[in-house]
Design brief:
This protein has about 160 residues and is α/β, with parallel strands linked by helices. The protein folds into 2 domains: about 70 residues, Transcription elongation factor, GreA/GreB, N-terminal domain (Helix Hairpins, Orthogonal Bundle), CATH 1.10.287; about 80 residues, Chitinase A, domain 3 (Roll), CATH 3.10.50. About 40% of the residues lie in helices and about 25% in strands.
Length: about 160
């Protein structure tokens, strides 16, 4: 099985989240469960059930992050030397050929993707349409709201 790629910056962000969950959230939830238990009857205790549910969520996220970090291939995108060709880790600057709007995205691993931060998953259809192309090329993309036409105006790799 191929190890999923992850940028160094993304891995660091996930390690920080994991550390926060283990050192702050887990102890806080354990204390909340202990306090709710002290209130007596657990069947009718909403705080206890909410804390247990939150504990399950936190433990699940800790397991997910630990597994992802242990299986990922961490890639230093500054050492890729792909030039103006788009590969994993590239920050791609695009111009919408219809509206003239300019936007940039970085192609990252699945778990570190966050569209609000303009980090798109390497396995997304849009990233797959970009990979292998070079600065200066134009391409069309079948978006859910119709065909969009883009020009790749810049490609860079930074840590």
């Amino acid at each position: 099985m191929k190890r999923p790629p992850m940028t160094q910056k993304g891995a660091q962000r996930l390690r920080s989240e994991l550390e926060r969950l283990k050192s702050e959230e887990r102890p806080r939830i354990i204390a909340a469960i202990a306090e709710a238990r002290a209130h007596g009857d657990l069947k009718e205790n909403a705080e206890y059930h909410a804390a247990r549910e939150m504990q399950g969520f936190i433990e699940g996220r800790i397991n997910e992050l630990e597994a992802a970090l242990s299986h990922a291939e961490i890639i230093d995108v500054t050492r890729l030397n792909a030039g103006t060709r788009i590969v994993f880790g590239a920050i791609v600057e695009l111009a919408d050929e219809d509206s003239g709007e300019e936007i940039s995205y970085q192609i990252v691993g699945d778990l570190e993707a966050d569209i609000k931060q303009r980090l798109i998953s390497v396995s997304s259809p849009f990233a797959r349409a970009l990979i292998g192309k070079s600065e200066g090329e134009s391409f069309e993309f079948q978006a859910p709201n119709g065909t969009r036409y883009y020009e790749i105006t810049g490609v860079r790799y930074e840590g």
